[in-house]
């Protein structure tokens, strides 16, 4: 009896125990319907913008629409858990980042997933320098003045972040530990609403991934004191590095990457990784990412294996920093 194509696809998507030949045959015709990219934060933030830029190219490359689904909450872990529990058929993937796939391990003692075990890495999308930003009304004019101001007003100032375990939270936790202060942290559902609060003067400062800060710093809507990487960013050439500005220990490069649920067939992962590689070589995609201030990974840094190694190394790096601060999500 012949199995109809639709029946075959249904069977393939509903089991991880298909014979190798069947799984490869299924992967050869993948994708046959739209693919969801889960963004574990609110619309408008860095992770969301990067996902949309890359998703557009993936749609053209693979001939199916890549639909963005924003699932915000708990520092990005809510959406990440949804990805982990999704069917491993290649039709639900996620753009994760340093917060969801590294820092969250230390922040959430009962984290429902293991970043280095429960996902299939697809590939690195972009590196993201961190910018120390403050509301326009803050009296400090450079990083040294900012550090003195925060130390003198630690009990009064407040810091915005996109949830415990997010990049904005982890990197400002590092900053505050270097300054020896414990200001009030104010959580938001994403970096975009946090920036809105900063623009409105409701928040004193925050640590932004560079795409969230470029436009506001360039227009003088907020102050940009320093960038966390070894070299200045072409997107914000007037913002000094933390080393230049007087805080060399503030070194952090956030990142965004694509992941799939554990058990997604390798041929499907290979298709997605190849499409992502094509996106990162596309002149239009590169231009848009560079304008945001992103660092585009070199060919040697792309693909599943380099990403798997990065996740393990980032967990090892951030866990002691976070545990030393004695901060855990409830």
Summarize the structure.
Helices cover 45% and strands 18% of the residues. The protein contains 13 helices and nine strands.
Describe the structure in your own words.
With 330 residues, this protein is an alpha/beta fold. The protein folds into two domains: 194 residues, Bordetella uptake gene, domain 1 (D-Maltodextrin-Binding Protein, domain 2); 125 residues, Periplasmic binding protein-like II (D-Maltodextrin-Binding Protein, domain 2), CATH 3.40.190. Helices cover 45% and strands 18% of the residues. It contains 13 helices and nine strands. The strands form two sheets. Strands 1, 2, 3, 4, 7, 8 and 9 form a seven-stranded mixed beta sheet that branches. A two-stranded parallel ribbon has the order 5-6. α3 packs across α11. The protein is globular and about 65 Å long. The chain starts with a helix and ends in a 6-residue tail after the last helix. 49% of the residues are buried. The N terminus is likely disordered.
List the topology elements.
Layout: H1 5-14, H2 20-29, E1 35-39, H3 46-62, E2 66-70, H4 77-85, E3 92-97, H5 98-107, E4 119-135, H6 143-152, E5 158-161, H7 167-179, E6 184-187, H8 191-199, E7 205-209, H9 210-218, E8 222-227, H10 242-245, E9 253-261, H11 266-281, H12 283-292, H13 304-324
Parallel strand pairs: 1-2, 1-3, 5-6
Antiparallel strand pairs: 3-9, 4-7, 4-8, 4-9
Helix pairs in contact: 3-11, 5-7, 5-13
């Amino acid at each position: 009896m012949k199995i109809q194509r639709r029946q075959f696809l249904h069977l393939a998507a509903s089991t991880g125990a298909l014979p190798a030949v069947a799984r490869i045959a299924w992967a050869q015709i993948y994708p046959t319907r739209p693919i969801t990219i889960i963004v574990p934060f609110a619309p408008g933030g860095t992770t969301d913008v990067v996902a949309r830029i890359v998703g557009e190219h993936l749609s053209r490359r693979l001939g199916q629409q890549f639909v963005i689904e924003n699932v915000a909450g708990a520092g990005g872990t809510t959406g990440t858990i949804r990805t982990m529990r999704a069917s491993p058929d290649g039709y639900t993937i996620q753009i994760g980042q340093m917060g969801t796939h590294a820092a969250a391990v230390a922040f959430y003692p009962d984290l429902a997933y293991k970043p280095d075990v429960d996902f299939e890495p697809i590939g690195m999308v972009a590196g993201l320098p961190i910018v120390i930003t403050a509301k326009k009304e803050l009296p400090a004019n450079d990083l040294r003045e900012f550090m003195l101001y925060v130390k003198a007003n630690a009990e009064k100032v407040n810091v915005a972040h996109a949830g415990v375990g997010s990049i904005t939270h982890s990197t400002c936790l590092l900053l505050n530990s270097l300054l020896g202060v414990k200001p009030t942290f104010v959580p938001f559902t994403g970096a975009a609403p946090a920036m809105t609060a900063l623009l409105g003067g409701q928040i004193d400062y925050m640590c932004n991934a560079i795409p969230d800060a470029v436009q506001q710093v360039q227009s003088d809507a907020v102050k940009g004191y320093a960038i966390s990487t070894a070299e200045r960013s072409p997107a914000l050439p007037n913002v000094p590095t933390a080393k230049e500005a007087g805080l060399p220990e503030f070194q952090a490069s956030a990142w965004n990457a694509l992941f799939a649920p554990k058990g997604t067939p390798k041929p499907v992962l290979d298709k997605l990784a190849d499409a992502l590689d094509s996106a990162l070589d596309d002149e239009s995609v590169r231009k848009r990412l560079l304008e945001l201030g992103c660092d585009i990974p070199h060919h040697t840094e792309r693909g599943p294996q380099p990403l798997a190694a990065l996740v393990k190394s980032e967990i090892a790096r951030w866990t002691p920093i976070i545990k030393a601060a004695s901060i855990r999500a409830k």
